[in-house]
Amino acid sequence: MLAMPTHPGLARCFAALLLLCALAPGVFAQTLPFRRYDVPEGLANSRVNFVFQDSRGYLWFGTWEGLSRFDGVEFKNYGTREGLPNFLVNAIAEDPSGHIWVATQGGGVARLVDRRASPVLFEPHTVGATRESNIVAGLFFDREGALWCGSERGIFRAKDPHAADLSFERIVEDGVVDSSQFGCVDASGHVWVCTPTAIVEIEGTRVVARHTAPDPALAAEHVYAILPRAGGGVLVGFRKDVFEFTPPGWHRLPIELAPEQEVRCALLASKETLWLGTTGGLVRWRAGAQTSYASESGLPDISIRYLREDRDGVLWMGTWSSGVVKLASEAIVNFVLPSAMPDRNALRVLEARDGSIYAPGKTGIVRVRGERAELVPGSDDPRFAAIANRMLQDRRGDFWIGTPSGLYRFDGPELDLAAGRHFDDADGIPEQGVFGRIHEDREGRIWVSVLDGALYDWDPSKSATPHFDRVPFQDDVGLQLPRDFLSDAEGQLWLAPYVGLARRVDGKLQPLEASEGLPDLQTRCLLEDHKGRVWIGTRFHGVSVTDEPTAARPKFKNYSTHEGLASDAVWSIAEDGEGRMYLATSRGMERLDVASGRVKHVTTSDGLAGDIVNQVIQDHAGRIWAATSGGLSRYDPRAEAPAPEPPPVYLARVRVAGEELPISETGEISIPEVSLPASKDNLRIDFVGLSFRGERDLVYQYELEGIDKDWSQPSPERSVNYAHLAAGSYVFLVRALHPDGARSGMPASFAFRIQPPVWRQSWFIALAAVLVGAMAFAIHRARVRRFLALEEIRTQIATDIHDDIGSGLSQIAILSEVAKRESTPAVQRHLDEVAGLARTMRESMSDIVWAVDPRRDRFGDLVQRMRQAAFNLLEAEGLRVEFRAPADAALDGIGLAPDRRRHLLLILKESLSNVARHARASHVVVDIRIDAGKLLLSIKDDGCGFDAASESRGHGLASLRQRTTRIDGTIRIDSSPGDGASIEVAVPL
Fold it and tell me: 951: which DSSP letter?
């Protein structure tokens, strides 16, 4: 074992030698899942000086060409047009009020004031009177809210950054400050700043102490970072060394850098980890161990300018020329060997008995030992190209490899392709292509499918030297060649061809049929878990499992996209130490917790090398290895970052009929209720959820209270449109859902009310009601006036007829009687006729006057007139009259038009006249009733009767029918000879 040199210079040379060894041809170190964001993704510039996360969760990047804000999906950039005094941004900070401040190169500092009515969003402030004092390298706020700025003219402080006349006081005058991490606030509230000559400790504005470097050789070294330590004191990053300092003691951390490698920034992160950004890559110091990452580790740029860990534990790096680099998780490490995987596609993964990992690629086999990958010598031979899953190490340690030219075996325990055995017909197996996986069952027998259409096995208990027996399939089974095998705890051999599924029990095949829990027999993989359950991966219906593998008809339970899987194509299955199942699918790796049913998606967003996962296994250390379309990935569930915080969600933009509402630059959780006119019923609402672990898998649910009854289906869309909303009150709600299950604690909300059209508004309705009422009243008054005028005319007509014509007819009758006394008998007869006619006409005229007179419009007047007519007409003829009618109180309020009164009266008189002249009756009954809104008039006599079915010689009955029809009534006449007569009239009131 090599001993680490103790002399600092020798130690650094030794570290450089190790680095060179790591880069030797054919050997590749592990790569972490770094992800790069640069100008093509929307970043303002590739050179990033600073990374900051504000209290809302947004990430801000200070670049050489402006400020960039990132929400996980999109960038928004700010420059001089938005009010920055200089577009080169060196540092970013947030004051206690939540305002963003930036330090610029020559323009002093600027505060984001968010003037929505103006394109100028920043308020600039000069730090000092000279140009050098406004070249601000860094800034931060102390516990009292004072703003500290480090510039080329020293260190300045502004007591009240929000004062109208913001002014700065120079606290430290020592030389040039050119590091964004020039100062910090420790656990006790003291301010620490670094200058070219000392580390200065300040309380308020008073310098408490000036601390010099622990070694005179370090006095000339630049200090690039000073950070507060949780236990007190500070951590100081010099150009080549890192110290912990708790006055008065200095303690150097044994971190070794390559000769040309220098510290540029530092970060104290979670898991008690110190990260260093250097000119030669990223350095991690944890639990006394140093790990370095550079280009060979997948780092896009080895010159790191700034480091920041966000609240989800994601590490962000600002680089010198490659934009921003993200490290989402250390749980995943990727291995890619271009010589073996020119297409980056790892086809299979196998753990050997010595702990080495083997991964066949397209043109070779990768072997991973510890943290390094190498090409297995000889595996680039065309015979071993793309062997995929046809590789096995048996319990004796020997390796079996199936190729298109037949089966090979190589002695273990390490794969050495230089000395192997190729099997042929003499060994009982043909030199034809091996199909599918080579399998060793629980008894140690080796099973191989060969493209001649048969299954071959070697039983070591029968022959120590491999010799295979051909195992033909039964003809009646019709099973295709199996591509995967499983030996379960009960001794059954499960066979999974491309289509079909069978068990081999006591030398016989038992095919299984599709069922409710096993809907797909296009099987792709098999696994028995620690509970003895058999899992079956299918091509189109996810995975099925049975806990009764020996049953004649096992019952299965299926898990598919309906239960939360991202894909229904399952290529491989593995189990970890906690009983969770890992599924290799076409859309990443799925971790299924059977007890809870919860599914975790692991994709390239989490650092997986590729999203098409060909195979998964668990190694002896409990880590999951995945052969993917982008290389080989190692996933350690124990190294996972804690569950992410619930993603906050903000309303980013609201456009009403194309016009934007005034919203804060960083969005709003809640917008006060807005009243909109009826014409502005079209809305577009944009929203954003902030999460930087699996951010591209973030989905949203929204609900419009007033229309929707429940939340929408989860969707990655970050906007929603509503067109032609009806008038009413609404509340829009939106929340974000993280793929790990975290959900926004509080949905963002926007309340608004769409006013109804003018004709539906209350004031318009009230006005319309008043107008309608006024019109109705005017019409009513006009009708009343017309009615009164008509009544007046009717009264006048009745009076005129009664007074003029009536008196004239009376005079005619009187004069006829007088003339009759002086005339001859012949003339007397004519005068008698004239007098009778005058009296008749006067009687008829009396009925007309009665009908016209408005004072007789009450129904009771009609009944009284009818009673009078009946008795006057019939009693004079000696008939007994019975007149029935409702009481006067029952007739109150019932009115009849003049014509209806007249016709009813004449119908009665005509009927009674017929009785008096023709019936020879002794008893007449007149009955008047009110029933169901109708007047019922009945006239019955006990006279001689007549044949009602025959045509009458007179006009009396015809006249009755005509009058009844004119008043929309009905009449029924019943009579027969000797039985009297009955007339019934019904008239609607």
Answer: P
Put the strands of the sheet holding 34-37 in their side by side order. Answer: 34-37, 324-327, 315-319, 304-309
Q: Which pLDDT value is given to residue 798?
A: 58
Q: Give the Cα-Cα-Cα angle 961, 962, 963 (nearest 5 degrees).
A: 95
Cβ atoms of residues 485 and 458 within 8 Å: no
Helical packing angle, 825-852 and 807-821, nearest 10°: 170
Rounded Cα distance between 892 and 859, Å, is 7
Angstrom distance (rounded) from CA 190 to CA 431: 79
**Distance set, CA 495 to CA 390, 401, 448, 533, 545 (Å):** 15, 19, 11, 16, 15
What gap in Å lies between CA 895 and CA 935, rounded to an integer? 12
The total of other beta-carbon atoms located within 10 Å of residue 143's CB is 11
DSSP assignment of 750-817, as one string?
A: EEEEEPPPGGGSHHHHHHHHHHHHHHHHHHHHHHHHHHHHHHHHHHHHHHHIIIIIIHHHHHHHHHHH
So what's the pLDDT on residue 230?
87
> Which distant-in-sequence residues (6+ apart) come within 8 Å of 132 by Cβ?
151, 152, 153, 176
Whole-Å CA distances, 569 to 411, 580, 748: 36, 19, 37
Span 597-645, pLDDT tens digits: 989 889 888 889 999 999 999 999 999 999 999 999 999 998 887 777 8
Strand order in the sheet with 136-141: 136-141, 147-151, 154-158, 169-172
> How far, in Å, CA of 569 to CA of 560, rounded?
9
Give residue 21's pLDDT. Answer: 41
Q: Would the pTM of this model clear 0.85, i.e. be above it?
A: no
The torsion angles phi and psi of 35, rounded to 5 degrees, stand at -125, 135
- pLDDT value of residue 838: 67
- Separation of alpha carbons 107 and 67, rounded Å: 14
Element (H, E) at 510: strand 508-511
Specify the 3-state DSSP secondary structure of 83.
coil
- Distance separating alpha carbons of residues 954 and 960, to the nearest angstrom: 12
> How buried is residue 640: exposed, middle or buried, by Cβ count under 10 Å (0-12/13-18/19+)?
middle
Number of other residues whose CB lies within 10 A of the CB of residue 518: 22
What is the C-alpha to C-alpha distance for residues 183 and 190, in angstroms, rounded to an integer? 11
Picking from 739, 688, 643, the residue whose alpha carbon sits closest to that of residue 56 is 688
* Amino acid type, 733: L
For 723-742, b where at least 16 C-beta lie within 10 A, e where not — what string?
eebeeeebebbbbbbbbbeb
Query: Given 3-state DSSP classes, what are the helix, strand and coil percentages for the chain, each rounded to the nearest 5?
Result: 20, 40, 45
Q: How many CB atoms lie within 10 A of CB 881?
A: 17
Which residues, in sequence order, are CB contacts of 526 under 8 Å at separation 6+?
A: 484, 485, 486, 494, 496, 534, 535, 536, 537, 573
Low-confidence ranges of the chain (pLDDT < 70): 1-29, 115-117, 473-477, 760, 787-811, 813-818, 820-822, 826, 828-831, 835-857, 950-955
Instruction: Find out whether the peptide bond into 648 is cis, omega within 30 degrees of 0.
Output: no
Using a CB cutoff of 8 Å and minimum separation of 24, what contacts does 246-251 make?
247/201, 247/209, 247/211, 248/211, 250/214
Q: Which amino acid is at 671?
A: I
> Could you give the 3-state DSSP secondary structure of residue 528?
strand
CA distances from 616 to 526, 575, 857, 917 (A): 12, 9, 104, 121
For residue 105, give both structure tokens: 């190169």
Residue 50, beta-bridge partner list: 62
**Helix axes 825-852 and 898-914, enclosed angle (nearest 10):** 140
Q: How many CA atoms lie within 13 A of 948 on its CB side?
A: 13
Using alpha carbons only, how large is the chain's radius of gyration in Å? 53
Quick check: helix, strand or coil at residue 173? coil
